[in-house]
TrEMBL record:
The keyword Transferase applies. PANTHER family: GCN5-RELATED N-ACETYLTRANSFERASE, N-ACETYLTRANSFERASE DOMAIN-CONTAINING PROTEIN. Residues 14-169 form the N-acetyltransferase domain. SUPFAM superfamilies: Acyl-CoA N-acyltransferases (Nat). It comes from Saccharopolyspora shandongensis. Residues 170-191 are annotated as: Disordered. It holds the Pfam family Acetyltransf_1. Gene3D superfamilies: 3.40.630.30. Keywords: Transferase. The keyword Transferase applies. This is Predicted acetyltransferase, GNAT superfamily. Residues 171-183 have a biased composition (Pro residues).
Amino acid sequence: MGRGPESAVLAGDFVVQNLDTAELQRQAAALYRRVFGYRNPDVGLSPPLLTGLLRNGGSAVGAVAADGTLLGFAYGMRGGDEEGMYHYSQAAVVAPESQGLGLGRRLKQAQAAVARDTGMRFMRWSYDPLISRNAHFNLDVLGASGRWYVDDFYLHERSDRVVVEWDLERPPAPAAPPGPNPPVTRADWGRGQQRGAHGWLALPTDPTLLDPAEDAAVRAAVRAGFHEFLARGLVARSCRPVSAETSVYWFAPPTDDRSRT
């Protein structure tokens, strides 16, 4: 049985707790569709799935306001591959009006508690490589590493994902690039640069400003850049803005202990 945050933890005007009531699960399903803008009735989040996760070592945690309103939630499950077992976070969803309150970090910490309680050392999840604010949160704020790049993750175009891994036994210590970032401009978007054992890859800070042709070109270039650096044995360690229109990924050799003993 997934244990997680059995007693809610106070955090300002909300608490973080398991989604263990029918009402919270109903709100989670509605919030999921609202945040992602889904209109197709075939796409959604199943409340019975959340119950199944809670009863079988997965996570389904939410940030709940004092009046019972669900402000955000995250859910995930145990996974495994040739490297061992891990907890996979499928999604973290925060209502637009509740962003900026630290909910994303608190939800990930709650999932980490579930993972530890079920014997997991590592967490993984994926994100859109062109959403630089998410990249910054995952890499710089939480200290996860971008270890894999999956083309068409969800089996359709514009669904490439970076898969990160978070070592739950290491204290959070986000990495800092060595020295200043190389000078980059809009012309460098998707163009990788390497200095010794380190690499940099520029991207637009706000991809929503791109027209469809620009978006397709930048996505293809970022895809190629990620594959190139990962093939060299590097991992994505940071993503930070260098100007109003440009952000930069920093790649470096992995430093985490891959032993699961």
